[in-house]
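Sample entry (108 residues):
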Amino acid sequence: MIYKPSEKEQEYFLKQEAQRLRKMREKARADMEAAERQRLKDEHWMRCPKCGMELSEIEFKGVMVDACFSCGGMYFDAGEVEKVIAAQDPGLMQRLKGTLFGSGSTVD
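Predicted structure, serialized as tokens:
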């Protein structure tokens, strides 16, 4: 006797296969996106956004910043501008934030 699957069984297995294929496609898409992000990072790491030449780290007012010796650009990572400003005038950042974000204080 040959076993013939019922319509419900066929539907169940088709759904399972479709779900498996969907997960595989999602994983492949996520892997491709991650690989593209890594490729872009590798391609642009320590490159000047203005001219594309290589950036060098230099010390500027006690903070290590990225500088381009080709076009003269200077680029700050998160928090570096605040450190440079704080070294020059410790209260300036607080006064600027108050003025820009409306805490009521003014810049003298």
